[in-house]
Amino acid sequence: MNSDGKTELEIENSVEEEPSADEGPSADAGQSTDEALLDDSVADVPPTRDEEMERLRLTAAEADKRVLQAQAEAENFRKRMRRDYEDQLKFASTDLIVDLLQVRDNLSRAIEAAQSGEQASGLLEGVAMVIKQMDDVLGKHGVVEIPAEGEVFDPNVHEAISQIPSDVESGKVAHVAVTGFKLHDRVIRPSQVVVSTGPA
């Protein structure tokens, strides 16, 4: 028995019953380690067969989409180049045709001058034949005359040089000074016209 009145046996039992200062933290540390190992095991789980197949399918679909887009862009580029080339061929003779039209204008004026004489029937027939032949040649190459006289004035194909009162309805072409022409669907020379303002 010691000075406190306890026997040695009681002292030994109390020592065994007191928890160690290290027991609490050791338990917590063990639990944290187990959780970390569990997280690592989940992260290392390989994808399932279905998940891998879905990933491959999405990758292939994206690749197909890019290929189709590239093919479409290439096809559009080829079409644009072909169209530009065809336009160059179609309108390559524009300058020559404009010069020929000036010759035609002179022949037309010769006919108008001859019509005022009494003994010019031979000249009239000859010049008219030349103009007819020239019109046929121009038409063969895609040149067409722009309708003008009596038509509603259209700034896309007509060029107004003046306005006059006339019996023709207001806003329509009363007189054609110079005939206009198109090459295929392109205006190469607008008709120079006098536009009616209506009856005086």
UniProtKB/TrEMBL annotation:
Keyword annotations from UniProtKB, A to Z: Chaperone, Coiled coil, Cytoplasm, Stress response
Span list, region Disordered: 1-52
Record's subcellular location: Cytoplasm
Superkingdom: Bacteria
Primary location group: cytoplasm
Any one GO cellular component localisation term in the record: cytoplasm
Biased composition (Acidic residues): 10-21
GO biological process: protein folding
GO molecular function terms listed in the Swiss-Prot or TrEMBL record: adenyl-nucleotide exchange factor activity; protein homodimerization activity; protein-folding chaperone binding; unfolded protein binding
Coiled-coil region(s): 53-80
HAMAP family (UniProt xref): GrpE
Family, similarity comment: Belongs to the GrpE family.
Quaternary assembly: Homodimer.
Function: Participates actively in the response to hyperosmotic and heat shock by preventing the aggregation of stress-denatured proteins, in association with DnaK and GrpE. It is the nucleotide exchange factor for DnaK and may function as a thermosensor. Unfolded proteins bind initially to DnaJ; upon interaction with the DnaJ-bound protein, DnaK hydrolyzes its bound ATP, resulting in the formation of a stable complex. GrpE releases ADP from DnaK; ATP binding to DnaK triggers the release of the substrate protein, thus completing the reaction cycle.
Identification of the protein by name: Protein GrpE
Annotated source species: Stieleria maiorica
Organism lineage string: Bacteria, Pseudomonadati, Planctomycetota, Planctomycetia, Pirellulales
Gene name per UniProt: grpE
